[in-house]
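Write out structure tokens for ERAP1-like C-terminal domain-containing protein.
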Amino acid sequence: MLLNSSSGISNEDGRIVLASMTKNPLGSSLVFDSLRNNWDGIWKTKGSDFPQFAEAIVETMKYMNTPDQLTQLRQFWNDHQGKLGSMKRSFKQAIDKVQANIKWMERSYEDIKTWIESQQ
């Protein structure tokens, strides 16, 4: 895994890779899945004050816009908030962002989809 101590990848290079991966919805989803599935190992290796995680977490939420994704994020929060340390604020911001994305989708998606289809 990219973020474990035996990967040979420096923290700075890991940050660059994470930032690059979060620039599209698929990569963003992969980063979140990796964080979620490997959190205990990440916690043991990096601890709670690893600023790249806070950045990556917020970036991975940029594309989340479904109730299922919000549920996953809230579940992660509930399971790990005692081990988030300085990242608690970033997680809270991420949850707020996903909630806003869901509201936007509910309010605007169909109108925009209809408009785009009418332009073809």
